[in-house]
Structure formats: C-alpha cells, structure tokens
C-alpha cells in the first residue's frame, strides 16, 4: 500500500495525541523502509538538542492519517516519546520528515 497523500493528512496539535486511537500504518512495507523509519527516528532524537529540531510525524489512527510537528525526546522499539509524556506507537507511524 502507498503512503498517504498530503490531501489525506490532517495536522493536529501535540495535545490532541491523548485522544487518538492509533492503528498500524501501511506506510512502511519492506525491511528497507522499516530501517529507514528507525534511522530517521533515531536521528530526530539526536537532533532534539539543536535549536532547529522539529520533525513532522505522520501516523495512522482510526479516523485516518494525522501529522504532528514536534520534537522527539526518545524512542523505544514500540514508542516514540515526545515532550509532556506523550507518545506515538512506532507501528502507527507512516513516515517521518526532518523540518
């Protein structure tokens, strides 16, 4: 399955993550794609110390695809950790771009 188009993505604020019902994304289908997502998440976490450290995370919910512009504070195999104790399940992330 192809990643979502820009028209299919709704931008939300970080505080709205608390009410999202996450589902597994279809954006990454090959091992190479999964490694690329992991690499970008790790790089984003390292860049969180710099002044320009925001990333755009596009993720899948039961309502459709959403995006949030944020800083990544940490990452585990299962979750991306954001400021204020918020997190996004890794398996719901369609893609990550450095801003």
Strand content: 25-35%
SS-based class = alpha+beta
**Spatial order of the strands in the main sheet?**
1-3-2-7
Number of β-strand runs: 7
The run of helices and strands is EHEEEEEE
State the distance separating the first and last CA atoms: 25 Å
Helix content: 10-25%
Radius of gyration: 12 Å
How large is the count of helical segments? 1
Q: Please give the domain count.
A: 1
Shape, per Cα inertia axes: globular
User: How confident overall, as mean pLDDT?
Assistant: 81
Unreliable runs, pLDDT <50, ≥5 residues? none
Biggest sheet record: 4 strands, mixed
Describe this structure in words.
This protein is an alpha+beta fold. The chain has one domain (6-98). The protein is built from 1 helix and 7 strands. It has one helix at 31-47, and strands spanning 9-11, 55-61, 64-70, 72-75, 79-82, 87-89, 93-98. The chain has a 4-stranded mixed beta sheet with strand order 1-3-2-7, covered by helices on one side. A 3-stranded antiparallel beta sheet has the order 4-5-6. The longest helix has 17 residues, at 31-47. The radius of gyration is 12 Å and the shape is globular.
């Amino acid at each position: 399955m192809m990643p979502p188009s820009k028209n299919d993505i709704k931008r939300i604020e970080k505080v709205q993550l608390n009410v999202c019902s996450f589902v597994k994304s279809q954006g990454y289908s090959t091992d190479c794609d999964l490694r690329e997502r992991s690499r970008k998440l790790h790089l984003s976490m390292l860049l969180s110390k710099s002044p320009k450290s925001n990333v755009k995370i596009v993720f899948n919910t039961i309502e459709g695809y959403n995006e949030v512009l944020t800083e990544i504070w940490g990452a585990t195999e299962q979750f991306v950790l954001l400021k204020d104790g918020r997190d996004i399940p890794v398996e719901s992330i369609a893609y990550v771009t450095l801003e």
